[in-house]
Amino acid sequence: MSTLNNDSKNILNSDVELKGTLRFSGELTFDGKLDGDINSDGTLHLGDNAVIKGNIAANSVVVRGKVNGNVTAKEKIDIKSRTELFGDVRAARLVMEEGVTFVGQTEVNPNKVSPTPPPPGESAKPGPAAKPGGF
Do 116 and 130 meet the contact criterion of CB atoms below 8 Å apart? Predict the structure, then answer.
């Protein structure tokens, strides 16, 4: 079978230990240990036994287990209860269940809106002059 199928579903169980960068297309359920990064344009499902020491970048991610690294998704990150996540999260949509341990920062921007700078001259205007003894 030499034809690549982007709808493929792959499973790496809890007895798998990898070191390096994991790349895949389609869908992957990973329940093992990884010392390295995960890069994909597909969907990643981490299992309850997953231990990741590295960054994750995918189209969408369902997070379980333990992750020590940043998680970035083009579409959605779904963090399930009892997950331990130490790292920053960036996605268009974010779901976080009760019972998650999360230490990091989030950036959720579904409309990909950029901050608008203040109009010219607005930020340079000083406030009203303070009066001595006044509040």
Answer: no
